[in-house]
Amino acid sequence: MIDLHTHTTCSDGTDTPFALVKKALSAGITTLAITDHDSTAGWSDSISAIQPHFELVLGAEISCLTSDGISVHMLGLLFDGENNEMQQMLADSRDTRIPRMRKMVELLKADGIDIDLEDVYQAAPEGATVGRPHLADALVTKGIVGSRDEAFLELLNNESKYYVTHAAPTPVEAIRAIRKAGGVAVIAHPFASRRGQIITSSTFSDLVEAGLNGIEVHHRDQNAAEQENLIAIAHELKLVITGSSDYHGTGKLNGLAENTTHPAQWELLESQADARRVVRK
């Protein structure tokens, strides 16, 4: 089984990188990608957990914004972790998260919701890239909502009055940076309309021109019709089709390997990196 999209405590997951690899091994996963938000901090810990006959794919999920303000997530896989431009882009994105979080907390407090920035910090694991899931966890801890899902549904989704955008690369800029660092770029859950505004089919031509390698098609936040539409786009544009769990541990309902990538599609995707960077023991 091949799962190319997971998160650890280095962003908004609840398993450490080491624990996630061990859990993947127990689940029978043969190829796992670690793709924390705007961070490669979990790479070293995850490498220390691998066993023979297991492939570890190192990457990151990059937060992007289109020119008209639509949030897009880009999976960068198999890039050179020492590439300075890539690491600078990730660092810049992380640096915008604290001012954004402060503003969201201020908006919530202005409406009488008892939450402050310290509550968010306490909800985030040490060293994690702070994001909305940690704000959601803080709201759960304070008894304001019952779960992360409820927090996003009622307060933190992209259409909420409490949502605050942040400085981020465009999808084209992110793709170019990933490819320049030798990796491959896969757009994550592009038609997940339940999350808010989504890109249109016509957007893909610009992404392909920038170097897009694949589309995450099989994902729980995209219904059957959306997945069929994405399959057609992938075939037309000769893009790799992936399926992934987007696992976050107990932070989301997503189960490891609930969606997977076909081995032939993974082989094609992996061949498009500029070097063989899959980690094996």
Provide structural commentary:
The chain has 281 residues and is an alpha/beta fold. The chain folds into two domains: 197 residues, TIM Barrel; 59 residues, DNA polymerase, domain 1. It contains eleven helices and seven strands. Helix 5 packs across helix 6. The chain is globular. The mean pLDDT is 94. One of its GO terms (molecular function) is 5'-3' DNA exonuclease activity.
Oligomer state equals single chain
What percent strand? 5-15%
What spatial order of strands do you see in the largest sheet? 1-2-3-4-5-6-7
Helical proportion, percent range: 25-40%
* Class per helix and strand makeup: alpha/beta
Total separate domains: 2
**CA gyration radius, whole angstroms:** 18 Å
Give the class-level CATH name of the largest domain. Alpha Beta
Assign an overall shape.
globular
Spans of at least 5 consecutive residues with low confidence: none
Q: What is the count of β-strands?
A: 7
Task: Name the CATH superfamily assignment of the largest domain.
Answer: Metal-dependent hydrolases
Number of helices: 11
**CATH A-level architecture of the largest domain:** Alpha-Beta Barrel
Give a brief outline of the structure.
This protein has 281 residues and is α/β, with parallel strands linked by helices. The chain has helices at 17-26, 43-47, 84-95, 97-110, 117-123, 132-141, 148-156, 171-180, 204-210, 224-237, 263-270; strands at residues 2-3, 31-34, 55-65, 71-77, 184-188, 214-218, 240-243.
